[in-house]
Amino acid sequence: MKAGIILFPGTNRERDMALALARVTGSKPSIIWHGESELPAGTDLVVLPGGFSYGDYLRCGAMAAQSPIMRAIAAFAAKGGHVLGVCNGFQILIEAGLLPGALLKNASLRFLSMDCHLKVERTDTPYTNHFQPGAVFRSTMAHGDGNWFGTPETVAQLEAEGRVVLRYCTPEGAVTEAANRNGSVNNIAGICSPNRRILGLMPHPENQVDPLIDGTDGLPMFQSIAATFATA
Amino acid sequence: MTDLPTPLDAARARQLSAEFGLKGDEYDRVLAILGRTPSLTELGIFSVMWSEHCSYKSSRFWLKQLPTKAPWVIHGPGENAGVIAIGDGLAAVFKMESHNHPSFIEPYQGAATGVGGILRDVFTMGARPIANLNALRFGAPDAPRMKQVIDGVVRGIGGYGNCVGVPTVGGEVNFHPRYNGNPLVNAMTVGIAQADRIFLSAAAGVGNAVVYLGSKTGRDGIHGATMASTEFAADSEDKRPTVQVGDPFAEKLLIEACMELMATDAIVAIQDMGAAGLTSSSVEMAGKGGVGIELQMENVPQRETGMTAYEMMLSESQERMLMILKPGREAMAEAIFRKWELDFAIIGHLTDTGRIVIRHNGVVEADIELAPLESQAPLYERPWVPTPKLPVLGTVADPVGLKAALLKLVACPDLCSRRWIWDQYDSMVGGQTARRPGAADAAVVRVEDHKRALAMTTDCTPRYCLADPEEGGKQAVAEAWRNITATGALPLAITDNMNFGNPEKPEIMGQFAGAVMGIGAACRALDFPVVSGNVSLYNETEGRGILPTPAIGGVGVLEDVAHAVGLAMPAGHDLVLVGATQGWLGQSLWLREIAGREEGAPPPVDLVAERRNGDFVRAQILSGAVAACHDCSDGGLLVAVAEMAMASGIGATLEASGDHAFWYGEDQARYVLAVPSAAPLLAAAAAAGIPAMHLGKSRGRDLVLPNGEAISILDLQVAHEMTLPALMRDGA
């Protein structure tokens, strides 16, 4: 597969993402500068990694969403391309209008860096097909603005269309208020586009792919990606 | 010879020199060097270069006595940071630095720019920062403004470190009323470089371009170094304009641009603009290289209009670097910095005059011979008196019993969980953090694309240092060494961050001297040299000094991260104590928190036993026989076992018998190991002549004390976890 990771000024989890992708796919993703106006030919997957693009100034992701490369990504997505946005990447996808809602400051008004547990709501997406139905996995979060918010209409539409892919839950899988540390509506941790090929999530499963570092709980997400493009 | 700068009026100059912090005889020396009255810019340059902060004039005499060499030391003190070889052709580059005064005046920005400054000291040498740590000392939690200070410092460290994408993986926090008016913020950065690709600061090549990089210069932080060299009075609020404002986004771009340029062969020398900004970077680079330097201030990128040469030379605006480029590399270097949307300006060139000449719009503003600026800098062997030894504490009765004491100790501010703090720091970014905060005695971070990992810690027990600066200095080094050892790593070197009161007081200078002697003795005994450091004096507010706090940042190496062990113990393991227990309660937390007394001599540090016990424990860990390991420090043996239990969620049944002094004494050189079977370990210890004893077994969900009393791990965890959140709830 051919994956490309977008590098904005202030991106800081591109190396983590590259290591995770390389671990499962065996091939090193390319790093694509935000000032480019074209994606490399034959790109299968575009990843917007975590970080603080443009220092989170103005509003998280707002300035990165206006980068030249984002026009190319929007066109790629419109043609059915696969796009994964993690943390700041999720914020950018929302600011670019590729996913709905908004990511507000955490309800505690503090940066939250901690373990979280995620309930996989559907396993028929390109990013979750290696999870068992109903699976719960541990990941980490590291964000100040991950409190997903949508209007009641948006929330109702997402839920009706089954586009909530990941929810914060307890280690046992209960979707509770206590497990919802950043205050997201309906414990939403990750949502996808109607064609399920664009996924945005706040946690960092790319940091859980190595038994010697923080366990392999996030590995199925990357195995899903590898499987998706192995059969594509 | 150039035109001479316009001197100040002689009387006005003397008055200003005092305001800038120069003593009368120091100013006389300025006059002798120049042979005339200085200009404003010249006076500014002398006063910051000769400030305590930049010149180390009270401390150099003592610091020279510290051991700084070992076969693995590549660069010791004197560069921007220390550099050690860690194997695989790699080098670890690290340093710890204080930002105490700014962090009290303006906690968020003070702490944030402390992180930014120490990061630059490391990446300016060609190392990519892989970890940040912080040693923090706050006042009594209920002291005025203290919650705001804690909240601001923690937010500032997180705000900066999280944004630049360097994981904050460890550190330490103490609380004591002696820090009420003068909290300490000591920030440490560790980076990784190729050992043969280290960048230094000595300028070379007459005619080579002097390049300014990074953010624009504003009027912030003017005379910050001077502010950091005086005591605080009640008017410190008025000093807020001397505190700099950080921009971690600019720093992130600066890191990436420097890394990209450092992969080429364009750079002759590079240094960050830290304390005293453009003045110290230009003076030090030219001075170290034995060349002259000429700067055109109109070419300095400026954030504000109408700035004078004086203001630009003294500004401490953040995220700036100064670099000497090889001829012909200017366009290539500029393209890299423009790509990262950073300022790049050629602001001068190197000369053969041995002088620093500052011009602004054609007018000479300063013209100073560099050699005497350094060689004639004040150096004081200040009067000092040794700290009187305290008597060894006699027997103290146990007023509450083991169980009540444990529940109180694990919840006290100095021992309670730091989760509220580290939950605000991104400890995972980079994807190499093998042991997060709280998981092991030292943080463990792997080197990308290698098996090799670094273990890192910061340590100091200020109450020991107050009671006996020499033993306290030894203990700080020994504990750092022990914490690294307890992960299985081999301790290699330290950075020291010496925080003390007013050195003009002989008893304070005595604390400093004692601490240096203790640190030196421990470094020699443990093969653990000092490779970088920082001194922060005048930590006094309205005449009251802090506890002497020589914070030690230690770095060690694990050849394979798979060998690292942490605190969490599996069930069904034997718990074995390695090291001798005498039951030393003097200056212990038990004595302070349970008996309400801060008394006695602190525990003595037997450096021979430290070395022997630690080398033994490390060998056991590397043999694969140890499932978990934790050193005994604050709170003593029972607190150590409780911390292992809380980290694993598994209880223990303790069988070893002993009184409160046995369980809560703070004897040094001890470790608790969890092993599948005690017998082989006890036999190996006996063969090595090392005291060891079986304590009990990990099992169940309770900690069962030798007297049969049980405490559920959940109760311990609740007590341990609730202190900081409860404390900060209404202050945040």
Helix/strand order of chain A: EHEEHEHEEEEHEEEH
The computed structural class of chain A is alpha/beta
What is the CA–CA distance across the termini of chain A? Answer: 9 Å
Low-confidence stretches of chain A are: none
Helix percent band of chain A = 10-25%
Specify the number of helices of chain A. Answer: 5
Q: Order of strands across the widest beta sheet of chain B?
A: 8-10-7-11-9-12-13
Share of helix among residues of chain B? 25-40%
Please count the helical segments of chain B.
25
The total beta strand count of chain A reads 11
Report the major sheet of chain B: 7 strands, mixed
Task: State the assembly state of the protein chains.
Answer: heterodimer
* Strands of chain B, total number: 28
State the major sheet of chain A: 9 strands, mixed
Which strand order do you get reading across the main beta sheet of chain A? 2-1-3-4-11-10-9-6-7
The most extensive interface between chains reads:
A-B, 31 and 34 residues
Principal-axis shape of chain A: globular
- Given helix and strand content, the structural type of chain B is alpha+beta
Work out the radius of gyration of chain A. Answer: 16 Å
Question: What can you tell me about this protein's structure?
Answer:
- The complex is a heterodimer of chains A (232) and B (732).
- Chain A has 232 residues and is of the alpha/beta class.
- Helix content of chain A is 23%, strand content 24%.
- Chain A contains five helices and eleven strands.
- Chain A has helices at 14-25, 68-78, 88-95, 152-160, 219-231, and strands spanning 3-7, 30-33, 45-48, 82-86, 102-104, 112-120, 136-143, 147-149, 164-169, 188-192, 198-201.
- In chain A, strands 2-1-3-4-11-10-9-6-7 form a nine-stranded mixed β-sheet, sandwiched between helices. In chain A, strands 5-8 form a two-stranded antiparallel sheet.
- In chain A, helix 2 links the parallel strand 3 (45-48) and strand 4 (82-86).
- In chain A, helix 1 (14-25) crosses helix 5.
- The radius of gyration of chain A is 16 Å and the shape is globular.
- The N and C termini of chain A lie close together (9 Å).
- Chain B is α+β, with helices and mostly antiparallel strands and 732 residues long.
- Chain B contains 25 helices and 28 strands.
- In chain B, the strands form five sheets. Chain B has a seven-stranded mixed β-sheet.
- In chain B, a hairpin with a 6-residue loop joins strand 15 and strand 16.
- Chain B is globular.
- Chain A binds chain B through residues 9-10, 12-13, 15-16, 19-20, 50-52, 54-57, 110-114, 140, 142, 144, 204, 206-207, 209-210, 212-214, and chain B through 155, 158-159, 162-165, 247-250, 252-253, 340-341, 422-434, 436, 446, 448, 561-562, 732.
